[in-house]
Amino acid sequence: MSKRRDRRLMGRAFGLARLNQGMTGVNPSVGCVILDADGHIVGEGVTGIGGRPHAEEIALDIAGGAAKGGTAYVTLEPCRERSQGGKSCSVKLKEAGIGRVVCSVLDPHPVANGGILNLRNAGIRVEVGTGRHVAERLYKAFFASIG
Ligand SMILES: [Zn+2]
């Protein structure tokens, strides 16, 4: 998978994230694009109005079994734990059999932070940094709110 293609697909994920920006409560609006093992888009999602479901959950639901061995592009670190119970996105990505995760920046929120470590511990290839500057602008207020 080329860097150019990674950037293009992350750009698509940012496009999704912008759709609900400002409408997701205290949660950041995240975009997620999932490719199957052959590189076809099989799922997409954006954080729901009010903050849930999370983008990854929506994209994984759409992708179903096609996510196995595929790649997930996420505009922010997938969450490590959920503040209100339920499976976190990092656990769901792992259970779906995702082979690779590309994300732009780490999530500084104490509950969400560590999702990438979860994924790496599960043997999933994780790359951080694609679209970092776009994410830093998009999530400026969210990052500032955490301090
Ligand atoms: Zn999540």
Question: What is the secondary structure topology, with strand pairs?
Answer:
Elements: H1 3-19, E1 31-35, E2 41-46, H2 55-63, E3 71-74, H3 89-95, E4 100-103, H4 115-121, E5 125-128, H5 132-138, H6 140-146
Parallel strand pairs: 3-4, 4-5
Antiparallel strand pairs: 1-2, 1-3
Helix pairs in contact: 3-4
The protein binds zinc ion.
List its traits.
147 residues; alpha/beta; Cytidine Deaminase, domain 2; 6 helices; 5 strands; 16% strand; binds zinc ion
In short:
With 147 residues, the chain is of the alpha/beta class.
Describe the protein:
- The radius of gyration is 13 Å and the shape is globular.
- The chain contains six helices and five strands; from the N terminus they run αββαβαβαβαα.
- With 147 residues, the chain is of the alpha/beta class.
- Helix 3 (89-95) runs parallel beside helix 4.
- A five-stranded mixed β-sheet has the order 2-1-3-4-5, with helices on both faces.
- The protein has one domain: Cytidine Deaminase, domain 2.
Shape: globular
What are the distinct ligands in this entry? zinc ion
The helix count comes to 6
Helical/strand content category: alpha/beta
